[in-house]
Design brief:
The protein is mainly α. It is 79% helix and 0% strand. The chain is globular and about 60 Å long.
Length: 487
């Protein structure tokens, strides 16, 4: 494969990018966060930030990737200048660190898919299955299977990713639609629909937490600012409508979240309305792997729908894992390695480092906390890169270039140049302030599971190393030898 290989069509690009954007966060985090933040009120704020955060950043990522034709480190070096190379390195570091533990999540999904197919979840309680599997060598094995499946796809480059996305993503949409339809037809499901779609306008005006949670959900479930969209944009065709692609991905991703919200909340309100607050108040793993199987068990033909649920969740996890692995692989390709060697290094590192999260839930939660918040800094750095290259230059000559039927106005420049950096800073400060309240005495503990100290310590180490290595990184990704050779 050459560096200039392209997706075969817009449909292929959209499906592959949706595979990146649609992950477990859409199916397990969105319903929980929506339910604990006012339902319909949250939905309004969530839609607002689709336009104020996600779509502007998606447009920027598409534009930078299409122009640079390199991964995040090479794109920052080429377009934002030598001094910004370390910022691209941060984006790559953050996404790669997430890749290390995301395969563990994919492994959990695989394990529960098998438990639902084999009938094990009918013979044993979901809590028992979860407790015997999490933090075990079985979890390591499932994590390894997820890494190997993603590796098999990324080995074939963009064409392999496109072929798999054309099967998994339409299937995922069909599965989620079937589950949502089944949920709304349950007796009592109307209460769930009313809760999700009826906003409290007074609460929206007086409760800033709703807005902050809605912005966070956009930052974490659309993939905007992660560097993944930029990575796929390398393989865009020359005449491609950047704004239209961005809107399709933003709305496509959020459609899955909304369907998942309907599916989960209608099922909860219909099957167990008395325990609704306890269920939605559980953490992501508790809601997904403990409560959902219990709810399906009380539903007519519940095992069939439980299989469909875990199949959809597995597809979402694997397509995101594939995208994360491709990002890490592409960065190494730009640094001079061939695809097989780069993929071997990235997958091998994922296999090794992911083992720690598979064996220790505290380590998993620590890494999810540190690098989840780190994504907000990645979004901030993307805005800085756009400013350094020239946002109006991006808008006029790349975003609105020939091939773009949907033209973007000056509002986009203001959003990316002013709103996105401000939103990123506000969210980072808000999350760190919250973390202090979780453990007032140990909030600066660098070894704390979810402390401010652990975030600052790991960020400081990563940023220091990247800044010190800035010149070396720039030389590696700027060399013509870094372009991938045909295999």
């Amino acid at each position: 494969m050459s560096a200039q290989e392209h997706f075969s069509s817009r449909w292929g690009l959209i499906l592959a990018t949706l595979g990146m954007a649609v992950g477990t966060g859409n199916i397990w985090r969105f319903p929980r966060v929506a339910a604990t933040n006012g339902g319909g009120s949250f939905l309004v704020a969530w839609l607002v930030f689709l336009f104020l955060w996600s779509i502007p950043l998606i447009i920027l990522e598409f534009a930078l990737g299409k122009t640079a034709r390199r991964g995040v480190v090479g794109a920052f070096a080429k377009l934002a200048g030598r001094g910004a190379t370390w910022m691209g390195g941060w984006v790559a570091l953050c996404a790669t660190a997430i890749m290390f533990y995301y395969s563990v999540v994919a492994g959990w999904c695989l394990r529960f898919l098998w438990a639902s197919i084999s009938g094990e979840l009918g013979r044993r309680s979901s809590a028992e299955v979860w407790e015997s599997f999490a933090e075990s060598w079985g979890a390591v094995g499932a994590h390894a299977i997820a890494v190997l499946l993603a590796t098999a796809v990324v080995w074939f480059g963009v064409r392999g990713i496109e072929r798999v996305a054309k099967v998994l993503i339409p299937t995922l949409f069909v599965l989620v639609i079937i589950l949502a339809i089944r949920a709304v037809t349950l007796p009592g499901a109307s209460a769930g629909l009313e809760f999700l779609f009826k906003p409290d306008w007074g609460e929206l005006l007086t409760n800033p937490r709703i807005w902050l949670e809605a912005l966070t959900q956009n930052a974490w479930d659309t993939g905007a600012g992660w560097g993944l969209i930029l990575t796929f944009a390398i393989y865009m065709r020359t005449r491609e409508d950047v704004p239209l692609n961005a809107f399709l991905i933003g709305f496509g991703n959020n459609s899955v979240s909304l369907l998942a919200g309907i599916m989960v909340l209608c099922t909860i309100f219909a099957i167990s309305p008395g325990a609704s607050s306890e269920i939605v108040g559980a953490n992501n793993e508790g809601l997904t792997f403990i409560w959902m199987p219990q709810l399906f068990a009380m539903m007519p033909a519940g095992q069939v729908f439980m299989i469909l649920f875990f199949l959809a969740l597995t597809f979402a996890a694997l397509t995101s894992q594939i995208s994360l692995l491709e990002l890490a692989t592409r960065v190494l390709i730009d640094a001079g390695w061939t695809r097989p060697k780069a993929l071997g290094i990235a997958a091998g590192a994922g296999l090794i480092f992911g083992t720690f999260s598979a064996l220790h839930m505290g380590f998993f939660k620590n890494q999810d906390w540190v690098w989840g918040v780190g994504l907000l800094l990645s979004g901030f750095f993307f805005a800085i890169a756009g400013l350094r290259y020239g946002l109006e230059r991006v808008r006029q000559h790349i975003v609105n270039a020939d091939g773009s039927d949907l033209k973007i106005g000056y509002w986009w420049t203001l959003f990316v140049g002013v709103l996105v950096p401000l939103e990123a800073v506000v969210l980072m400060v808000w999350w760190l302030v919250q973390a202090r309240s979780w453990d007032p005495k140990g909030y600066l503990d660098p070894l704390g599971e979810s402390s401010v100290g652990t975030v600052l310590a790991q960020w400081a180490l990563g940023l220091l190393l990247l800044i010190l290595a800035n010149g070396w990184l720039f030389r590696r990704v700027s060399s013509e030898k870094s372009l991938e050779k045909p295999s």
